[in-house]
Each structure stands twice: as structure tokens, then as C-alpha cells.
Amino acid sequence: MEFNEVIRKRKSIRKYKTDPIPDDVLNRILDAGRMAPSAKNIQPWHFIVIREPEMKKKVAEACRNQFFMTDAGAIICGCAFEKIAWGRMGNYMAAWPHDISIALEHIILAATNEGLGTCWIGAFDERMVKDVLHIPDNVRVVALTPLGYPAEEAKERGRLELKDIVSYETFSTEREH
Taking 90 as the threshold, does the pLDDT of residue 154 lie above it? Predict the structure, then answer.
């Protein structure tokens, strides 16, 4: 698929076929995450692939009972090593949330390219996810995504026009902020 088509085609999917994801497809998708850039190339991430049905159910419960996730062939949990990530972005913030988000977006776009659906899951109880997946306290859960073959057509959702989100040379917008 051409890159701009991948970007335009990617939509949140909340209904999946129960078909398993072949290992070669899964590995290509995960490798896209591995190739993502990170601040100072530290790569402060770890991905957990959940395929076992009972584990998917427990993870879905920890994600505010979003059980639609359990039909997907896998769920990917994106974790970040907070302590090793570069800590001076903008001279005031750590890079770990950005680094893992970029890597997860690479995974999501690669999944789209493979004909799979995803849905960025930010509604979760971190302590519950950590307990279910045995994630150490010093590792942060940033987001999860189901990964599976879509069983629905994604809803078309509007996007803002460039003129509403871009200015040149200095900050300028008509939008309320």
C-alpha cells in the first residue's frame, strides 16, 4: 500500500474477526516498532504481545472492560522504561511517553499496511494492567492496542483542515485554546 493511503486508511476498529495473526505478519509489525526513532536512540520500550484468550480477557478488564479487544488475534501493550529515557526534551520533560508513542504508531501503521485493524487504548488502569502482565513498578504502561482482522468498516470521522491547525513563522490560530 502507498504510504499516504496507509495513513488515510488507518481508523480505530472496535470489532474483530477471531482469526489468528500469522507469526510472519506479527513480526513485520513488531519490527516496525523496533525501527522507530527515539530521543538519543535510547529505545526505552518493551512490547508485550498477548494472544492467550484468558489473558486477553484480563487485559480487557483492566482496560475499563473494553471486551471488544478480546476478539482480536492479539493485544499489544506498549511499555516504557521511564528511568533510562532521555529526560530533557524542551528542557522540562522526559522523552519516554513520546518515544513509546512513536513506536506504537509505527506498529499501528504497519498493521494497517498488513490489512489489520487497531484501536489506540488509553483508557486503562495501569496498576491492573501491570498486575495482569507482571510488569515491574519501574516500567510504565503507556497504551495498548488490539491487533486483528477487522469485522467492520471503520467509521469515517472528520479531520480538521490544515488552515485550522497550521501557522507559519509564528503561532496564530482562530481556534479556542
Answer: no
pLDDT tens string 4-27: 999 999 999 999 999 999 999 999
Distance of alpha carbon 133 from alpha carbon 62, whole angstroms: 10
Range of the domain at 69: 3-153
Could you tell me if residue 163 is inside a domain? no
pTM comes to 0.94
Half-sphere exposure of residue 70, counting CA atoms within 13 Å on the CB side?
15
Angle at 108 between CA 162 and CA 68, to 5 degrees: 110
CATH of the domain at 105: 3.40.109.10
Residue 77 lies in a domain: yes
DSSP state of 153: P
C-alpha torsion sign, points 142, 24, 40, 42 = positive
